[in-house]
Write the structure tokens for this entry.
Amino acid sequence: MAGFPAGGTDNILLVTDSYKVTHHMQYPPNTTTVYSYFESRGGKFPNTVFFGLQYILKRWLTGQVITLAKIEEAKELYTRHFGKDLFNEEGWKYILEHHNGYLPLRIKAVPEGSVIPYKNVLMTVENTDPKCFWLTNYFETLLVQVWYPMTVATNSRYQKEIIASYLDETADNLAGLPFKLHDFGFRGSTSVESAGIGGMSHLVNFMGTDTIASITTARTYYGCPMAGFSIPAAEHSTITTWGKDDEVAAFRNMLERFPDGLMACVSDSYDIWNACENVWGKELKELVIARGKHNGTLVVRPDSGDPPEVVIKVLNIFGAIFGTSENSKGYKMLPPYLRVIQGDGISYETLESILSRMKENKWSAENLAFGSGGALLQRLNRDTQKCAFKCSFAVVDGKQVNVFKDPITDHGKKSKKGRLTLEKTKDGYATMEEGHGDPKKDLLVTVFENGKLLKDYSFDEVRQNAELDLVKQRKSSQ
């Protein structure tokens, strides 16, 4: 149909749930303020990394986002959608005429990258024009989508905690930590946009990625010139096109085409044990060693089988052939020109089993890196951290109303009351309800007001806010 782009639109009036279009008619008469908040009500991880709101604000809400053409497009679409005219044309034209198309909203949020225990307020939203009380919750649909970058960043950070703890126990230092979990998730994402958002969220914690969309998204929305890095690497097609009998030639080509630096080669196309023991370990052994003289490191990638078993067997084969050294913690290290990356079956749930098996066998975690795809960017949803957006305060007929819900069938969905602040306490964090907090102690920052972005976080700021306490402690002790 002419006038309606396939697959999406930049018309902010259309980026909501259908029923929101009718809500301007449902509030009590003489409502002038609607105030809502966003939180993680619980979920898989006890803390959440708040991240991604700035992307939403810059992408959708900042500037003159309401025009007459957008209002007319929305009216036509919604009239057809509902079969009658329920669209708030008057309200949107008011915003266009009195606010020049800028949204009269105020959004406060914790600093991006903040690590906050669940059941705490993370963001509040309210209208700044009493005639636009209906606007606050119109954008719930869009704003709640911060659940995705937030949850990816949280999932990634918890994996970083596991890796960091094993490095701390079995490696000389944590220097290699930023590159220990590599993003392989582009092809498994639901869209290029979701790959960019999710991949960028992983880069809050790490610096390794093969998801190009993640680095372009971080560049555009967080001003980061280069958020992630990668290395030359083989896939099965570039190895198997040489044929099974010529696998050695395929491997040799990798060593010769990339004579220095890090290079990864998938090695399980046929027989991972033969590849490690006879191809890398005999026929190409001298080339692998010689490449090390040019600061070259071969990273061998098994890509099938039971990860803990495969990793240990590969390390043992290489250790027997290339030799090992012992680090300051008493754990074995392969020569610096040889490492392993496990990129199959990696998730928060599987990391521990691999790293604990390595530790049991006296292998340092420094020998291994991980790659993760679907489990990193896709195996999660809004309920992973039970994200919710609820109204907690309103002004009706000039009276302040503390708004809440408390379903008798599920008290876990009980919502907070009144105006909220987030404050630091001796035990961590606390959300103060019903306006009882101290505004001077409030950690929520006004990031958006009346169509303007008031706080523009750099990616470095986000990373610093999200950094592990263990890493901060090690840096401070150096």
